[in-house]
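fyi for ur records
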Amino acid sequence: MKDRKKEIGRGLLGKMLADLGIAREDFQAGGGACSRRTETMPDTYNYPARIERDDDGRYVVTFPDFGWGATDGATRDEALGEARDLLRELIAATLREGTGLPEPSRHGRGRPLVVPPVHTALKAALYEAWRQSGISLRHLARELDVAESEARRMLNPDHSTKVATIDRALRRLGKRVTVNVGKAA
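which gave:
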């Protein structure tokens, strides 16, 4: 008799998940078993940009996911450099307004993915985790054993906060920071 464990390979598992209407990405390994991911906050703060040429031949960059804001450059590379600054400001403005960040849409042909500065992404992750936790700012401060004013600064996109402090706060909110390094565009 065959060992049934050996028969369930990646292909069969993928087919079983597909039959159930579950994407493989929605599962993560953990101690030999699979557990469904339930987090709803984005796990990346990289957004696709739309690049178009204007009447003067300049490259204009927008972020359709946000619905506002634009920047430009004389060259495509210059425009994309400016786009990173625009994305930082779009994320910061959203945090200042106290609204939720839009889910990044898929990037594709003609829509390059723009990566925000690391500190901006970390602040956005902390803000989203705090919003989704449903706890008050005072409760967050108590959880972190800091003054409420310090917790407020941690959520402020214009205030510098140490990465270790953001990491500790995210862990208290049930999240963790991971780092991916990819090829530069």
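Confidence is low (pLDDT under 50) at residues 1-9, 24-39. thats all i got for now
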